[in-house]
Write a structure and sequence with these properties.
Layout: H1 3-37, H2 42-70, H3 72-95, H4 101-133, H5 137-165, H6 168-189, H7 193-199, H8 214-217, H9 219-225, H10 228-259, H11 265-291, H12 294-314, H13 318-332, H14 335-346, H15 352-364, H16 367-380, H17 383-401, H18 410-418
Helix pairs in contact: 1-2, 1-4, 1-5, 1-6, 2-3, 2-4, 2-10, 2-15, 2-16, 3-4, 3-6, 4-15, 5-6, 5-11, 5-14, 9-15, 10-11, 10-15, 10-16, 10-17, 11-13, 11-14, 12-13, 12-17, 14-18
Length: 420
């Protein structure tokens, strides 16, 4: 097999993942606006965001075990098909004005429950396909993060345009199409797990008929718990994701409604964040092996989270808020490639999906609480004060979790990962 053909499956998986992310970015913009357009309050916006994040915890944990058993490619296809159907039904009911709050929450829950296993399965394919292609692991993780950020940027921007020209439910139809294309790319261009094992780049997995014990099910969680550096990263991301959910999924949507009545600027804000993150991810892919360190990692976390909240709390002019969001995105873009590079090198191949699933479940676990908290903050106090509270919480998280001897292994682990 030529080097070009050996690289094609890697780029197709990354492309399929980017398509799913683009569609999901549109849905992320559409759901809060659908809730607000139907006359519900900020508290209901928080509930809808919680309904979107809570099933990721369940789906990622259970889906990791599922993917390790039946295969990453099969899991990806099944997951995308189920998610596509649910968002299609959600969009249809919204367009027909037959979407009471309980039905909206249930469909959002089901859509994200089905989406998480597919996302984890595609992530789990990256190390095997990277070995097949012969490219460095830092490059493949950088490309994946860059295209993922690009997809989020384009999806968010497209959602803003769609909302301003038509209605939020139209974004859900586009998401369903993205899932369909992702399925086609995966089925036609990505080799099966059996083919990868024949190539010698995929570890053998136990057959489904062998069953799975409780210990096997929680093998990924056990790996995280017994690996100090990974555990420290997970604790920090759990807390920052909780606050991210509060700020970006709820408070940003409420803030956008103060800028324009239709809330279309919410899509623009998210797209600008993604554009900055795209640039940051590209820079990390190009220069990460040379400049990554634990201090760079922690600095990027601080710059990605604190400045937007501080600016919106201070009520600075909106154009300056957009500029600060772009800088925050630039910082955020380098975070995931650093984390992914370390994880892909450290996680044993036979429990990769379970470990990544357990990590996704853990870092998502606090997001429903953040969304509900932000909904009630936005409803019970002035919006600038709500942003100030979230910003203060960010600062407390970095002080409490950003230091300790377990972080000293970050540089050593990253250097080891770049040699894999």
């Amino acid at each position: 097999m030529s080097s070009h053909h050996r690289s094609l499956p890697l780029y197709c998986v990354i492309g399929a993942d980017a398509l799913s992310r683009a569609g999901n970015a549109m849905t992320t913009i559409a759901i809060p606006l659908i809730v607000l357009n139907q006359g519900y309050s900020a508290a209901e916006v928080g509930l809808s965001s919680a309904a979107a994040s809570l099933p990721i915890v369940i789906g990622a944990l259970a889906g990791g075990s599922f993917a390790d058993r039946i295969g990453y490619r099969t899991t990806s296809v099944i997951s995308d098909a189920a998610s596509g159907v649910t968002v299609l039904v959600l969009g249809l009911l919204a367009q027909l004005h037959m979407l009471p709050l309980w039905a909206l929450l249930a469909l959002v829950f089901l859509s994200n429950l089905m989406d998480a296993p597919g996302s984890g399965a595609r992530a789990s394919q990256i190390p095997d396909l990277t070995r097949l292609s012969g490219v460095p692991l830092t490059r493949s993780t950088g490309i994946r993060s860059t295209l993922g950020r690009l997809a989020t940027m384009l999806g968010s921007a497209a959602a803003g345009v769609v909302v301003s020209l038509t209605s939020p439910d139209m974004a859900l139809y586009i998401n369903a199409v993205c899932f369909l294309i992702s399925i086609a790319v995966t089925m036609l261009m990505v080799p099966s797990d059996a083919a990868l094992r024949q190539e010698g780049v995929r570890d053998t997995i136990a057959p489904v008929s062998d069953g799975m014990s409780l210990r096997d099910f929680f093998a990924g969680a056990a790996f995280i718990a017994h690996t100090p550096l990974v555990r420290a990263i997970v604790i920090m991301v759990v807390l920052t994701n909780l606050l991210d959910s509060a700020a970006m999924n709820v408070l940003w949507a409420l803030y956008a409604r103060t800028v324009s009545s239709d809330g279309a600027w919410y899509g623009v804000m998210t797209a600008i964040l993604a554009a900055g993150a795209l640039t940051g991810a590209a820079c990390c892919g190009a220069f990460g092996r040379r400049y990554s360190s634990r201090w760079v990692f922690l600095l990027m976390f601080v710059c990605a989270c604190l400045p937007p909240c501080c600016c919106m709390a201070a009520q600075i002019p909106f154009p300056l808020v957009l500029a600060v969001i772009a800088i925050a995105g630039l910082s955020a873009g380098s975070i995931n490639p650093m984390i992914d590079t370390i994880l892909y090198a450290l996680i044993p191949g036979d429990i990769r999906a379970r470990t990544l699933g357990a990590m996704t479940a853990a870092v998502t676990a606090g997001m429903p609480f953040g969304s509900v908290m932000a909904g009630y903050l936005g409803q019970s106090m002035p919006l600038p004060l709500a942003f100030a509270i979230i910003g203060g919480c960010y600062a407390g998280v970095f002080v409490l979790t950003g230091f300790g001897r377990h972080w000293r292994r970050f540089d050593e682990s990253f250097r080891h990962a770049t040699e894999v």
